[in-house]
Amino acid sequence: MKQITCLFLLWFAPTLFAQNTVEGTLIENHTNQPIAFANIYFPQLEKGTTTDESGYFILNNLPSGNYKIVCSFMGYESFSKTISIPLNRKLEITLNPSAIEMGEIIISTPFHKLQSENVMKVEQAKITDLKAKGALTLSDGITDIAGVESISTGIGIGKPVIRGLSSNRVLVYTQGVRLENQQFGDEHGLGLNNSGVESVEVIKGPASLLYGSDALGGVLYINPEKFAGQDSNAADFEGTYFGNTQGYSGNIGYKESAEKLKFLIRGSISEHSDYNTADYRVTNSRFKEQDFKAGIGFQDKQFKTEFRYNMNHSKLGIPGEIGEQTTRKTPELPYQDITNHVFSSKSNIYFENSSLDINLGYIYNDRKEFEEPHDHHDHDGHDDHDDHDHHDDHDDHGDEALEAALQMKLKTFNYDIKYQLPIYGKFETIIGTQGMHQTNGNYGHEILIPDATTNDFGVFGMAHIHFEKADVQVGARFDTRQIDVVNGFTKSFNSFNGALGVKTKLFDLITTRLNVASGFRAPNLAELTSYGTHEGTNRFEIGDENLTNEQNFQTDLSFEFKSEHVEFYVNGFYNLVNDYIYMQPEGTFIDETPVYQYVQEDSKLYGGEIGFHFHPHPLDWLHVESSFETVTGKQDNGMYLPFIPANSLSNVLRVEFDTKWVNKLYSFVKLQSTFNQNSTSEYETNTPGYNLLSAGFGGNITLFKNNLNIAVSGTNLTNKTYINHLSRLKEEGIYNIGRNISVSLTYSL
Question: Where residue 684 falls among pLDDT bands split at 50, 70, 90?
Answer without folding.
Answer: confident
